[in-house]
Amino acid sequence: MEKVQQAQEISYGRGNVISLEKGKIPPQAVDLEEVVLGAMMIDKKGVDEIIDILNPDVFYREAHQYIFEAIYKLFENSEPIDLLTVSSQLKKDSRLELAGGDYYLIQLTQKVASSAHIEFHARIILQKYIQRSLIKISNEIIEESYDETTDVFDLLDMAESRLYEVTQGNIKRSTETAQSLVIQAKKKIQEISNKEGLSGIPSGFDKLDRLTSGWQPSDLIIVAARPGMGKTALTLSMARNMAVGQNIPVAFFSLEMSSVQLITRLISSETGLSSEKLRTGKLEKHEWEQLNVKVKDLEKAPLFIDDTPSLSIFDLRAKARRLSSQHGIKMIVIDYLQLMTAGGTGKNGNREQEISTISRNLKALAKELNVPVIALSQLSRAVETRGGSKRPLLSDLRESGAIEQDADIVSFIYRPEYYKIDEWDDEERSPTQGQGEFIVAKHRNGGLDNIRLKFIGHLGKFDNLDDFSTPFEFHSKMNEGEEDDPFSTTHLPSADEAFGSSINDSSDDDEVPF
């Protein structure tokens, strides 16, 4: 018993004795750190297995951090990794003595015979690091909580953000070297070159995807329009194309419509049954069968809808983090930005500053989760008072210029048909009925364009515009080859024969095929 007590005591200074009985030592696994580093220096297979799991910060001993950094540099430069090369790299970095010298490196390699179980050991080291990180973060939160000048909502957001980083096993470093960033960029370019199709998340609209190469991770995309233009219809169509068509997890935050209303719109789009029929429930027997069959894909889709009203930016970030960690969402849609609140920091009566806070936080959320965020936005009434085509401009963004500043892409929805304009204001003079335009007015990383889309009003959806979008274009294409073949007997169909009934015809007498 005496020996145990002596072991629990150490001398400190002259005659002072302190007890470790109630003292706390940070979680650590120094013995496993030694084993892992030794295994990496004697077996390249061990390096390949754990190089993506660990980083220098996870090691408790500073000497071990220097050794791992040397190994990592050798790995990045595709150089051999062994006792001699690690020692040489440490000498180049002027850290050999700080790492314990050659003698310590030799000791590490003598502690193991192979890299067996190295991944298991590495994950224990990572767990100890996460425990230390939680202790550090908790202490910071406690200290900030005692500070009366701290805004409680900022503190909540900071706490949740830091804890989210820990749950992802990705405690972020404050800075990165140009060398490591170049390697990351080259790796990403290589992945894109090897990948078939788009580099980002496909919207399902072909011309738009060609322009953007898909919605890119960490981008904030603003889709703005006046009421009635189809903002919700467009983003719901995109969400459907992603979740149902591509099985890509999507989070849809609706501050305006209820989740049941949104899913009813999607059911209408998916089944071809008009919203009016679904709203009244007046379906024929075959339409009920059609409904039951067509919604099966929608039922299985990874689409998550949240209809919390007056959602604050801090609540949205918290919900998005949980959806990201639990369901791996790849896209976030917010309908719409002006209905959000900024929480505690925005209650100062200045709506413009509040919107600035919201847009800035949405961009931060996109970067944090590394997913594209689409936020719908209202336009000012200046569009309505403008003469001519009433085409929206960047200056029409409502309440804050910060939206334009924070966004990577700013786009508008424009349907001339809404303003009783029968023809497009261009050389084609083609009819506007059943058509809309997706205007990309700002694109930080690409070009600008105006993209025509098909608008199907009674189903509340947008779709790709067919090559022969109007009877005029169809007849023009068919007549192009007639002069070359004067004996051609090709029958040119009428507009009704070529295109069937109007896409906006929502008569209950129409039967929609399965």
Automatic annotation (TrEMBL):
Keyword Protein biosynthesis: no
Enzyme Commission identifier(s): 5.6.2.3
Chain intervals for the UniProt region annotation (Disordered): 476-514
GO MF terms, alphabetically ordered: 5'-3' DNA helicase activity; ATP binding; DNA binding; hydrolase activity
InterPro entries according to UniProt: AAA+_ATPase, DNA_heli_DnaB-like_N_sf, DNA_helicase_DnaB, DNA_helicase_DnaB-like_C, DNA_helicase_DnaB-like_N, DNA_helicase_N/primase_C, P-loop_NTPase
GO cellular component: cytosol; primosome complex
Keyword DNA-binding: yes
Keywords from the named record: ATP-binding, DNA replication, DNA-binding, Helicase, Hydrolase, Isomerase, Nucleotide-binding, Primosome
Highest taxon listed in the record's lineage: Bacteria
Domain SF4 helicase: 194-469
GO biological process, one term: DNA replication, synthesis of primer
Pfam families tied to this protein: DnaB (PF00772), DnaB_C (PF03796)
Catalytic activity: ATP + H2O = ADP + phosphate + H(+)
Function as written in the Swiss-Prot or TrEMBL entry: The main replicative DNA helicase, it participates in initiation and elongation during chromosome replication. Travels ahead of the DNA replisome, separating dsDNA into templates for DNA synthesis. A processive ATP-dependent 5'-3' DNA helicase it has DNA-dependent ATPase activity.
Family the entry assigns: Belongs to the helicase family. DnaB subfamily.
Protein name (record): Replicative DNA helicase
Organism annotation: Aquimarina mytili
